[in-house]
Specification:
It is built from no helices and 20 strands. By secondary structure, the protein is an all-beta fold.
């Protein structure tokens, strides 16, 4: 089964300094039929004005992934980590037994746009941890490049869940295939461009949730930048 969610079906928040588009229930938005997709709990598409951000707030027992699309995010936490995450980098934070962190636009004048994703961990009560990994953007060309995985590497952030996040930039007219074992899920997010996935058309900021579909044919109607998440 493939469900397509057009970009304009997302719940939107605009408080001036923050514009956020929510794929799942979050904060003031609650839909009992849209609280998660398997272990995936949050997919927020956030735009934060210069000099603004989210003050210190707690998390526990959640894997939090931030993918910066434009600009820079400054991260601070009570473990003593202070880091600036830029476009072309991915941050993974395991909240575990509890962590307090803050996220700000690192620029006073330029906006920042990032995707923040939350996933339930394989086990509760983990020791909180944090890492940032950069990826080679040239390797996105017409390929699925892993940027987060249970088996992390020097260029792939690790995560405490049986899943992988891929990014890709697919040229117009090109096609990719993706095959996974039966019984798994796929979440796909089109960051830019237009795709056709197993006959379903998706445009910029559209998403698709797929269950019991072991083979995908992904074709670019126009050049497309997208994220694919392989989930249990």
């Amino acid at each position: 089964m493939i469900q397509v969610f057009p970009s304009n079906s997302r719940y939107s928040v605009d408080v001036g300094w923050l514009r956020s588009h929510l794929s799942f229930s979050f904060g003031e938005y609650f839909d009992p039929n849209n609280t998660s997709f398997g272990v995936m709990r949050v997919c927020n598409d956030d735009e934060v004005a210069g000099g603004k951000g989210f003050g210190p707030h707690p998390h526990s027992d959640m894997e939090v992934v931030t993918i910066v699309l434009k600009g820079q995010v400054k991260h601070e936490d009570n473990l003593g980590n202070v880091e600036v995450v830029s476009a072309g980098e991915v941050q993974r934070m395991s909240a575990g037994t509890g962590i307090v962190h803050a996220e700000y636009n690192a620029s006073e004048t330029e906006g920042v746009n990032f995707l923040q994703l939350w996933f339930m961990p394989e086990e509760r009560g983990l020791t909180p941890s944090f890492e940032t990994k950069g990826y080679d953007r040239e390797q996105l060309a017409n390929a699925l490049l892993p940027v987060v995985s249970k088996k992390g590497t020097d260029r792939v952030a690790s995560i405490h869940q049986d899943m992988t996040i891929y990014l890709s930039r697919l040229e117009q007219g090109k096609e990719l295939s993706f095959v996974q074992p039966e019984g798994r899920r796929v979440f796909l997010f089109v960051i830019e461009g237009k795709l056709v996935v197993n006959g379903h058309e998706l445009g910029t900021r559209d998403t698709a949730r797929m269950e019991s579909v072991s083979s995908l044919a992904i074709a670019a109607q126009e050049e497309a930048f997208f994220m694919l998440i392989d989930l249990p």
